[in-house]
Structure prediction request, 188 residues.
Amino acid sequence: MFSADTAQASSEYSSDFKAIFTIDGSGLRDGFDQVVKDSDSITGAAQTQDITDAHDTYLRGNHWTTAAGTTPLDAAITWGFDLPVTLGGIHIWNHRSDNIANNSGYEPTRFDLTIFGSQNAVLARFLDVALLPNTPTAQTFSLPAILSDVVAVQFKVRAVEASPDYTGLAEVRFDTTRTADAVPLVAQ
Prediction:
């Protein structure tokens, strides 16, 4: 599992809710992005990345949220890679507005995913994909085939749970392999 190098969004609520927070591990347990830590001092077990790790609830500095005055259905975020990567799957931790925000229901419930190669060539497009709201753990999606030379992935919001004003995401990670029990993405 790995993270993107850049994150650019159509808008950001403020510096407390930036797109970069979807790739920096904020909101995940300490050490999440270390593939294997030395070992747990109590159990002696190695700790690894785990998509069943819950993301923290909605706080400043750990979520991307769109700007006021924008429409959630116009929102998009693009993750970029400094060097081309091989991509087989994506893990998405949905927004956790869970009654903490003034108007909750920010979570995207449907999205389009576009995967780009060099010179902005579209390698694959997945339309109207379902995403569950109110889930603290990652939702995993597998590509129909492993793609190489990926330079960017764009997530475009198509529907949200309830908010007419805001949307966003908590975290995202990528995988070089496909996961058998993941939601299969169907190319359009």
